[in-house]
């Protein structure tokens, strides 16, 4: 729950909780927030504390401005907003959506950046939005539901502090993945809307969703 709205939980059936190589793998849940974490050591307690801190900042923004939760269009910046809320607002402005479109990426990035002080390599997935900082390349598998390509296609991510955006499947089977520096932006760019080229398209600024370099 955020504010007075109960958010529907979606089971994360695509996750693999086995430890792999140098990474420890664990899960942290706080109400509807459900994080999948790979770190160089187990950091469940620290991760939960950070999730609660981030959720508290977002809930405070909703309490002060209820439209923060319900708006489908960007809100203006308010200097009284917390760092987490401000990042969501700025990401939403770039994408032309409401700030809650960036909530999953915002939580993943907030937690990930703080955990870097304890684990110099970290991967955090939150409902499809990923924050990653690694020293060697890794492959991010794409989950596309019942599509025959689900879990058979991946993105190779080079060593960088690069958050990986969401994956969204449109009803005719198309899927889009967004890679963006700044984890809270990915989810904001992946939304359904009328495409300028006809049919349905995924993403904000429809030119970006239709292949413009600025959207990658």
Structural class: alpha+beta
Oligomer state equals single chain
Largest sheet: 4 strands, antiparallel
CATH level 1 name: Alpha Beta
Task: Compute the CA-based radius of gyration.
Answer: 17 Å
Uncertain spans: 165-173, 182-216
Question: What coarse outline follows from CA principal-axis ratios?
Answer: globular
Looking at the overall shape, the CATH architecture is Roll
From N to C, what is the helix and strand string? Answer: EEHHHHEEEEEEHEEH
SS summary, helix count: 6
* CATH-assigned fold name: T-fold
How far apart lie the N and C ends? 32 Å
Strand tally: 10
Range of helix content: 25-40%
What is the strand arrangement across the widest sheet? Answer: 1-2-3-4
Q: Please state the average pLDDT score.
A: 75
Q: What is the count of distinct domains?
A: 1
Strand content: 15-25%
Q: What is the name of the CATH superfamily? A: ApbE-like domains
Supply database-style keywords.
two-stranded antiparallel sheet, 4-stranded antiparallel sheet, 23% strand, T-fold, alpha+beta, disordered C terminus
